[in-house]
Specification:
Elements: H1 3-27, H2 33-54
Keywords: Membrane, Transmembrane, Transmembrane helix
Transmembrane segments: 6-24, 36-54
Length: 55
């Protein structure tokens, strides 16, 4: 795997972790629950994509 591809996967994992952390924080608030759940779903999808590309 090239350096650019490795960097892209690393950036994607950082984004996924941030989406999951802040999605949980937003999902705890009743008025922002839907936005938080969507962020969590996006983070899970990012992790799944990275797993697919690395296998």
């Amino acid at each position: 795997m090239s350096t650019v591809a490795s960097a892209a996967l690393a950036v994607t994992m950082i984004a996924a972790i941030l989406l999951l952390i802040f999605g949980v924080k937003l999902a705890m608030r009743p008025e922002e629950r839907q936005r938080g759940l969507l962020m969590i779903a996006c983070g899970i999808i990012f992790v799944g994509n990275v797993l697919i590309w690395t296998l």
